[in-house]
Amino acid sequence: MDGLCQGCVCELSVFIQADSHRNFGRSQPCRACGCSAPGHLLEKCCETQLEVDAEGIKSCRSCVKLQKSLILVDCVCFPPSFQVFPSQDPLDRADFNAVEYINALFPTEQVSNAPNTLRRLDDNIRTVVRGQTNVGQDGRQALEEAQKAIQQLFGKIKDIKDKAEKSEQMVKEITRDIKQLDHAKRHLTTSITTLNHLHMLAGGVDSLEAMTRRRQYGEVANLLQGVVNVLEHFNKYMGIPQIRQLSERVKAAQNELGQQILADFEEAFPSQGTKRTGGPSNVLRDACLVANVLDPRIKQEIIKKFIKQHLSEYLVLFQENQDVAWLDKIDRRYAWIKRQLVDYEEKYGRMFPETTFVFSISPLSCRAELSKIMRTRAKEIEVKLLLFAIQRTTNFEGLLAKRFSGCTLADGTGKKPEVPPPSTNPFLEDETGPETDEIVMEKGDTDKPKKPKVPDNPFHGIVSKCFEPHLYVYIESQDKNLGELIDRFVADFKAQGPPKPNVDEGGAVLPSCADLFVYYKKCMVQCSQLSTGEPMIALTTIFQKYLREYAWKILSGNLPKTTSSSGGLTITSLLKEKEGSEVAKFTLEELCLICSILSTAEYCLATTQQLEEKLKEKVDTSLMERINLTGEMDTFSIVISNSIQLLVQDLDAACDPALTAMSKMQWQNVEHVGDQSPYVTSVILHIKQNVPIIRDNLASTRKYFTQFCIKFANSFIPKFINHLFKCKPISMVGAEQLLLDTHSLKMVLLDLPSIGSQVVRKAPASYTKIVVKGMTRAEMILKVVMAPHEPPVVFVDNYIKLLADCSTDTFQKILDMKGLKRSEQSSMLDLFRLRLPSPPPGGDGSGSLSLSAPTPEQESSRIRKLEKLIKKRL
């Protein structure tokens, strides 16, 4: 009979035989798993109600047939119509082991302490919960106590405020009488002071009027100043009639004094220029003291009349129609003025105090007369005559400064000239010396201590100012002279030729630029002595003009052309030259000339910057912004850039035939790896020929030699990689040979700054980075070519890993170098597009070169062998 065994793990049927209900029979193995689990057999019947007695006899009420079944307590089997759902609980497993299960749940002895810990936690929780039963009541009680405390505090504050008000009222009551006394004292003091001032003012006005009538100028000079000072205290009382009346009396006395003093001077100095018999020198001296206190117009009127009377002879002698009035006889004019000043000091020096400076006003008339005559005869002014007159005038102003030191004409009072702060200009030589002094414009002078500027002459420009409108003659003359100087420089260069190599002149600064700036120095110093206004701006414009002409005519105009006279080949034609043919290059003399022009342009650039600073220091402050030599400095920078580019093009063009020969070689036929290829030897030869010459001639400008190296690397390496792509197809051995050649070129380029030099210097980090980055890319290209293209996925991943270039054009060139068929290339390109990494957020998705870690983790045995060969050769 068949039945379902519940005790069996597989839950399949178990076959049990039973001959009677008292014979338990024998349990047979499970048909599915082979176990011997006993079961309760249920016979197949009509599946209606069954009855089982105490002895295990089962009776079916529906069936005629009596069914018997053996009941086994250990297991219950069900017919196939019953199903038991599977369970993942370990307790339901047939091989369940209680000991192992408990050990798995409680692996350590510390678990025995868990009940105690739980008991303590329960006690703590119980305590906390019980403690929170009265929290609400405690909080309400605390809030009520706080409110009561606040109310008490407000009550105390109110009490204190009331007491303070009472105290204040009490103090006011106590000090009421004292405050009244204090106000009375202050008012009394003010009244006494005012009355004293009023008494002084009234008495002073009376005395002033009396002394004015008696012409007692000595006493009036001191009294008038005091009366004016006292009157200032009554400005707020001018509404009082008596005070206003006193003020009007003071003004009337001042006007009367002014009229009396003018009348006294008219009487003392009649039109004939002689003073009255008896000599009123003391009276007039005191009158001058009074004039200093009066309105400044009174003093100016006195001086004007005095000068007019004493210069009447001057106006007659030096009229416009007189020969002695012209600029060529300007010495006579100044000689007459000097005699008059000496005579003035002898006759009137004690009469006029120094504070009036009557003696310093006379040159103003001289300036007016010179301006008038030069406007009339402007066409007769020549530059030599103008400079002669300016020089004599400057000497005369210097004489005035030495004799009347500290005198100024702005306000008629002595004023000590201010010493300006130390100059930050790099020109440290004394510019007041001879005009033939050479200009010092070497770099590095900016760190030297600056010499304080000599204080300005207070009389500078008092007469020479009249020449400023005519300085255009001087500017035009300098324009002509500089034009002739530039033409002479051009002629001298053509006559002498470029600097000779292997001598001191090679790579040195051209002497003409030093001559140009020496002449600039002379013009700048001379013009600054004449004027620091618009003529300096005009001179700056002339400087700019000839700086540009020097840059183009002398420097750029003498740069060698890109076509060599010896070879007769252009740079473009070099690419068509066959291997081993003659390469058109600059001669040794031409290389030295380019370096010399570069050094000269660098010197002119630095000197022009310093010239701009010096011009700004010389010119008036209001005109400083109009001086800008940036355009000229940019011009010299262009000359420097063009010179470096010529040197790079020359060396680059010399290497082109070798690279062309490399691209035309049959690299698929190379059978073994040897020493470096002939084209590498040719490139190294050209580098060793040019670079030492350029380095030696640019020894004074190392930064531009570094720029040359960087520009050459940026030009040569991409060109080398482009020719590398033209090498197709390439065999494995050919790729190894190219890799060896690439490494050789890389080492030569790294050593480029110091190649052929006895002193080995470390190459600049910026240059080394460019070479390593570029040549490593070339090496990675060859390593990708050497890698097998089967399986394609590995090849594509290796390409992406080594080159990190997402460009399909580059990948296409790699496939061409490997010599793959078009069908293979098509499948490779499709796979490459699928394997491309996703672009980062915000990126453009284009390929980028990342060579920070170019070496792959594992190299093939052939590549390692090749590297050992390279190290052994080096």
UniProtKB/TrEMBL annotation:
Domain (Vps53 N-terminal) ranges: 95-493
Source organism of this protein record: Zonotrichia albicollis (White-throated sparrow)
Alphabetical keyword list: Coiled coil, Endosome, Golgi apparatus, Membrane, Protein transport, Transport
Domain Vps53 C-terminal: 736-820
One of the record's GO cellular component terms: GARP complex
Similarity field: Belongs to the VPS53 family.
InterPro entries given in the database record: Vps53 (IPR039766), Vps53_C (IPR031745), Vps53_C_sf (IPR038260), Vps53_N (IPR007234)
Main subcellular location: membrane
Name of the protein in its database record: Vacuolar protein sorting-associated protein 53 homolog
Compartment(s): Endosome membrane; Golgi apparatus, trans-Golgi network membrane; Recycling endosome
GO biological processes: lysosomal transport; protein transport; retrograde transport, endosome to Golgi
Pfam families associated with the record: VPS53_C, Vps53_N
Coiled coil: 143-184
Listed transmembrane segments: none
Chain intervals for the UniProt region annotation (Disordered): 412-434, 833-864
Record membrane topology: Peripheral membrane protein
Name of the encoding gene: VPS53
